[in-house]
Amino acid sequence: TAEKKETYIVHMAKSEMPGEFVDHTRWYDASLKSVSGEAEMLYTYTNVVHGFSTRLTPDEARSMEARPGILSVLPESRYDLH
Amino acid sequence: TTRTPSFLGLDQNAAMFPESDSARDVIVGVLDTGVWPESPSFDDTGFSAVPSSWRGECEIGTNFTKSNCNKKLIGARFFARGYEATLGPIDETKESRSPRDDDGHGTHTSTTAAGSVVSGASLFGYAPGTARGMAPQARIAAYKVCWIGGCFSSDILAALDKAIDDNVNVLSLSLGGGMSDFFRDSVAIAAFAAMEKGILVSCSAGNAGPTSYSLSNVAPWITTVGAGTLDRDFPAFVSLGNGKNFSGVSLFKGGALPEKLLPFVYAGNVSNASDGNLCMTGSLIPEKVRGKIVLCDRGVNPRVQKGSVVKDAGGLGMVLANTAANGDELVADAHLLPATTVGETTAKEIKDYLFSDPNPTATVLFEGTKVGIEPSPVVAAFSSRGPNSITPQILKPDLIAPGVNILAGWSGAVGPTGLAEDARRVGFNIISGTSMSCPHVSGLAALLKAAHPEWSPAAIRSALMTTAYTAYKNGKVIQDVSTGKPSTAFDHGAGHVDPVSALNPGLVYDLDAEDYLNFLCALNYTASQINSLARRNFSCVAGKSYSVNDLNYPSFAISLEARGGVVKHTRTLTNVGPPGTYKVSVASDDSVKIAVEPQSLTFGQSNEKKSYSVTFTAGAMPANANGFGRIEWSDGKRVVGSPVAVSW
């Protein structure tokens, strides 16, 4: 189960973006690649969240959470019609 | 919708609402199951060019092209990456990988909010009339985020991200998830960003009523909508062999039952299954059902599916019996066989006969559509109830709107029951839920936005809430159908929406992003949590006294220890009407004393702000006890009302 990938929403602190990045999406990508070489972004968010969604194993999610500039790594949740 | 424009006073006061380009420039974004663009409710006859502010798109996909959008349905997008990442590729034999609505729900909600005027609408002749959305001149943008397997937060976030880019003015979300803190709740997070851009976000309160603490979408920057009934019913009587008749409701249309009483059986007695009374798939014994009317208990499986199960077993008709979970609330369905739904009280009487007569018989008589039903509205049993489990100091739901037996546009891909075996296709369907009440408020918010383009989302919500009504014309408080007793602010919030009064509320309780950030400080959110939610470094000032009670909300919720206490709230009113002096009046039950200071506020000019304080004093009460009251400011013409709910 530790290897099973799930979707996470990664919230980034944009103000903590290192100076070597001019584009925040490159910073997001570098952060993701640092914990998972194969993971890809599902979405990059601009207006509602500074961050992205991706598929990670629980271990990768924990590693991501510990990285600088990461605010939170929240598991995806399901909503239902009312 | 038919009937709701009249029920809400819109038809009678059409001249009060703007018909200008400002109304046509308001864009309502609906996150749902997509859209059926061929619905006549998306007819764009008479519409001017798409507003220049619009940045959206009509995305192509399965059975959906750019030409499916027009000057009414100006945008349609779909978001499936999160869904497909979890559940695998969309099965395009079952659902369209495009904005097309294969479910019906999204077409129903979007046309309720802002559908064009369609004469001669009905479902099989039921609820006939001219159908229209609440803001028929507004534009619609559909964002498909819900699929057969559900609606995933990564897709919802992406849709709301785009909707903000696209420049929608109102967002309507008839969906919800579990209860979680705002910084973990994707809808709350995205709604915060939308609010900052001046977009009003209207969400359904949920269908988990009448249980307390059952609300969804309770963030204070969201407008949370519960459901009430209309003054319309679809009676279908059960006539028993003992000569007694009982009323129920139904939307059945088809071959009539034989003109004689038929053998009548209880599903639990014609099944080998332990839950045979529920008419679950395959649970009925055909030899014991064939040619008979079957009484099934409500619950677990869909109501319409029970009818299908009875039909498959050879039954000729069904009586669907409410249980305690639903009480006497009657939700009508377009059953596949002659069937009627009866309330719990009626069901008990019918069962008494069914279990005592050795050869019980019955038939069902369909009476069509009846209007003028009183009392109306009543709070729907299913409508989720307060208190607010996340922040008890914010009263939710904010208000109620029509959500029971609502006729609106439907998908051509599915029958009115939504069952695979339902081959019927309809242009309009009648369904119920807070999903249906939410887009009513979204459309009404669009009307207010057109009339008052400068109003913030909080000001629009305030206008809707402070002018909502809590009593019938005879002075009696709006009933709760689950109890048959007067409803409370935990059921109806500020009351039932009254859009005509909301146009000219006189005063509003305004709020901006800074106010909500201070509110988060009052909740002791960490800097990181605030950053996750509001995308910024916002430091709560050390030593500063933040209070949830200071959020300038149009209602009051006081959460007390069992020993009682004294709680002080402050509020600021903004004048959006002519100059005038407003005097306060308070009402409360014996459990709480309400004192307002000052007692009078004079406004000399537009947008002038005046503050007041309220002190709530309450004694000891048992835990979970509730008390209620009301604070009203009036200049003699307008009443700016706020509900008060106290919980121990």
Structural write-up:
The complex is a heterodimer of chains A (82) and B (648). Chain A is an alpha+beta fold and 82 residues long. In chain A, 26% of the residues lie in helices and 34% in strands. Chain A has helices at 24-35, 58-66; strands at 6-12, 41-45, 51-56, 70-75, 78-81. A four-stranded antiparallel β-sheet of chain A has the order 2-3-1-4, with helices on one face. In chain A, a hairpin with a 5-residue loop joins strand 2 and strand 3. In chain A, helix 1 packs across helix 2 (58-66). Chain A starts with 5 loop residues before the first strand and ends with a strand. The model of chain A has no long low-confidence stretch (mean pLDDT 94). Chain B has a seven-stranded parallel β-sheet, sandwiched between helices. A seven-stranded mixed β-sheet of chain B has the order 14-13-19-15-16-17-18, sandwiched between helices. In chain B, a hairpin with a 2-residue loop joins strand 6 and strand 7. Chain B is globular, with a radius of gyration of 25 Å. The two termini of chain B are 41 Å apart. The mean pLDDT of chain B is 96. The interface between A and B is large, with 27 and 51 residues.
At a glance:
The complex is a heterodimer of chains A (82) and B (648). Chain A has 2 helices and 5 strands; from the N terminus they run E-H-E-E-H-E-E.
Biggest sheet of chain B: strands, sense, closure? Answer: 7 strands, parallel
Order of helices and strands of chain A: EHEEHEE
How is the biggest beta sheet of chain A arranged?
Answer: 4 strands, antiparallel
What is the overall shape of chain A? globular
Give the tally of β-strands of chain B: 34
Q: Which class of secondary structure composition applies to the elements of chain A?
A: alpha+beta
- The value of Rg of chain A in angstroms is 13 Å
Percentage of residues assigned to helices of chain B:
10-25%
Fraction of residues in β-strands of chain B: 25-35%
Chain-averaged pLDDT of chain A: 94
Strand order of the largest sheet of chain B: 2-5-1-8-10-11-21
Separate helix tally of chain A:
2
Uncertain regions of chain A: pLDDT < 50 for 5+ in a row? Answer: none
Strand arrangement in the largest pleated sheet of chain A: 2-3-1-4
Count of beta strands of chain A: 5
* Average of per-residue pLDDT values of chain B: 96
Query: What is the chains' assembly state?
Result: heterodimer
Q: Which regions of chain B contain 5 or more consecutive residues with pLDDT less than 50?
A: none
> What's the number of helices of chain B?
15
